[in-house]
Write a structure and sequence with these properties.
By secondary structure, the protein is an all-beta fold. It contains no helices and 11 strands. The chain has strands at residues 4-7, 10-13, 18-24, 33-39, 46-52, 57-59, 67-72, 77-82, 91-99, 106-109, 113-118. The strands form 2 sheets. Strands 2, 4, 5, 6, 9, 10 and 11 form a 7-stranded mixed beta sheet that branches. The protein has a 4-stranded antiparallel beta sheet with strand order 1-3-8-7, with no helix packed on it. The N and C termini lie far apart (40 Å).
């Protein structure tokens, strides 16, 4: 029943910035974790950033210092601020949420949004 809707992808020049948004259909206050993944053509999907219910964050080495994951519980939205973008960042970006407990646990994925960084 949880739905995630991504927005903010697009075309940007190298060195530019984009902010991705992931809006949830329900409160994200109790979500165990929310994540951003990305998948480039010919590559496996990789975890880019994670934010837990307690506010802890983790980043892939390739984006540390450039990307920032955050959440706004009041808006039920997670964000990925992407700065100093590189062509290597080109990929489809997916938001993901782990939620529920016990037999109600579930993982929900967004539809993905394309980010293209030109050189």
């Amino acid at each position: 029943q949880v739905q995630l809707v991504e927005s903010g992808g697009g075309l940007v020049q190298a060195g530019g910035s984009l902010r991705l948004s992931c809006a949830a259909s329900v409160s994200i206050f109790s979500f165990n974790a929310m994540n951003w993944y990305r998948q480039a053509p010919g590559k496996q999907r990789e975890l880019v950033a994670t934010i837990t219910s307690g506010g802890s964050t983790n980043y892939a080495d390739s984006v540390k210092g450039r990307f920032t994951i955050s959440r706004d519980n009041a808006k039920n939205t997670m964000y990925l601020q992407m700065n100093s973008l590189k062509p290597e960042d080109t990929a489809v970006y997916y938001c993901n949420a782990d939620h529920g407990v016990g037999k109600w646990y579930s993982t929900t994925w967004g539809q993905g949004t394309q980010v293209t960084v030109s050189s």
